[in-house]
Amino acid sequence: MSSLINLLLKYKKITLSAILLLGLTLTYIYEEKWQVHQDFLQISQTEIFHQLNIDNLEQVQAIKFNILVRNSVFYTKSDREIKASRSKVLELVDVLKKLKVDRVMSNDKASFNWHADLKMTIAFAGRKLEIQLGDKQVFSRKFYMLVKEGGKESVYLISDLSADPMAYQTDEEYQKSDYHYKRLQMIFYLTNIFFYETKVFSDEGYVEDKINFNLVEVATFRNTKFSLNFETSQTSPAPFKGIEYFDDNWLALHRTLSFLQGKNLITPYNESLLSEPLSIMTIVDRRKKFFELQLFKSYGSLKGYFLKVRTEVQGVSHLWEHLYELSPEVAQHFFVNVQDFWDKRIIKNSSEISISFSSLNKNSKNQQTDQFKISNKDLFNVYAISTHLQNHKLNINQFKKLFDLLNSQADHVEEYKLPIDGQRLMIIGINDNTYQFYKVYNTLSILDEKNKIVWSYYLGSELPFGVMNKDYYGPQQQK
To answer: If you ran DSSP here, which 8-state letter would residue 196 be given?
Structure first.
């Protein structure tokens, strides 16, 4: 009997412990849910647009702009719809989300001064809010805002939590700053034009980690027509013997065209007002779509760089209704020539080379060759190979100047057909090739004897390197 009683008491303790543990667990879960609810309630009370994001925005409208969303694409709306830039709409959303309620004021809006033009209506996540800007506080950077939703009006004192890039001398100066307030005023006065999508190929879905084009052809007013075949990584015309391709410029042009963007959009425009054609670029992308991009210097009385776009679908030409104004930095890609995509360096990625000088001293009767080895690994250094130079002090700086020039891109290369009409400066051997250096006015022309091409560098009247023995090594040192 006693063992039975002990067993019952044991299970009773276990049962009571289980009930106590369950009670504690339920209490914890309830408190956690209550805290989450309180946190959400606090956020909803302090951040007006805490639910707003770029994906649930339905429409935003102010005095001069009206943006709506259809099938996840943004449009500006006035007399017609024009595609809007998602990134610029996101900038607006980010500003609104940084507005925080600092204090709930009296609902008597008549006690405050409201600016009639500074109104904005934002529809998102099934909600519709109308905000109106009031005055800024004189003694702080905070400002008043009237918020209307579903027939209810609330007056708030607002703080803008976004970054302030301005520099202030004192904390008091910072506290009274009107930077955020004035920026918000400017946002209320934005126009549809600000939000226009100015990316030329925004509908094509081009990506950075893939080849988006098959063929690009370029013809400018000063260069002959050439093409870049991105499928075969070849140019037409092909580079001369001994010249490879310059991958960096291929990638730079591909990136620029994939995400080509104007600084302004003119729409609609009058094609007859375009004048002074500068360049024509035709593109065939990886889906075999054809585009013709033509750059002009003038549009009516406006000067700049204006891009007209034409597409061809099933043999029918279609002129785009938008004219893109490009920045000079972007427009320069329309003035490239085929040699920009060739590697026009005499020395290419070499950590060690053999170099020899001949006929440096024209007055010497004993014309001997001076041989050296240049090492460009961790540190730049030069070693004399010729026995007659073993005790001479070398001018490393002069070797470095010559090496840097030969390791830089030449301005132009051409096939060697006629004798070079200029002053011959010296003859240099580099590894298994020989180069003759000529000065032709302000141009340094270097004849590549092996490949029969001429490399031209536009250096001006002064050469950056020496052409005499004494420039590269001094007299023999005494032991």
So the answer is: B
Partners of 219 in the beta sheet? 280
Q: What is the DSSP letter of 420?
A: -
CA atoms within 13 A on the CB side of 264: 13
Residue (of 463, 479, 351) closest to 471 by Cα position: 463
Cβ neighbours of residue 367 closer than 8 Å, sequence gap 6 or more: 358, 359, 361
Q: Lowest mean pLDDT of 32-41, 113-122, 298-307, 385-394, name the range.
A: 32-41
Residue with tokens 């033009």: 117
Each domain of the chain, given as residue ranges in start order, spans: 1-46, 57-195, 213-343, 352-476
> Contact 354/385 with Cβ under 8 angstroms?
yes
Distance CA(429)–CA(294), nearest Å, equals: 46
Q: What is the dihedral of CA 429, 433, 437, 440, to 10 degrees?
A: 180
**CA 243 to chain CA mean position, Å:** 30
CA dist., res. 446 & res. 435, Å (int): 6
Q: What is the pLDDT of residues 75-130, one digit of tens each?
A: 999 888 999 999 999 999 999 999 999 999 977 888 899 999 999 999 999 999 99
Residue 89: name the closest of 64, 111, 66, 113 by CA. 66
Please say if the pLDDT value at position 373 is more than 50.
Answer: yes
Q: Which two tokens stand for residue 418?
A: 């006629």
DSSP states along 265-294: EE-S--GGGEEEEEEEEEEEETT--EEEEE
Q: SS3 helix, strand, coil % of the chain, rounded to 5?
A: 25, 40, 35
Strands (E), 137-180: 143-149, 152-160
Instruction: Provide φ and ψ at 250, rounded to 5°.
Output: -60, -50
Which pTM value belongs to this model? 0.80
- Judged by DSSP in three states, 43 sits in helix
> What whole-number distance in Å separates Cα of residue 321 and Cα of residue 266?
9
Alpha-carbon Rg for the chain, nearest whole angstrom, is 36
Read off the pLDDT of residues 325-351 as tens digits, 9 standing for 90 and up. Answer: 999 999 999 999 999 999 999 998 788
Burial of 18 by CB count in 10 Å (0-12 exposed, 13-18 middle, 19+ buried)?
Answer: exposed
What is residue 243's DSSP assignment? -
CB 476 within 8 A of CB 469: no
Q: Judge whether 46 and 57 are in contact, CB under 8 Å.
A: no
Tokens for 84, please give them: 């809007």
**Residue matched to tokens 């001429």:** 454
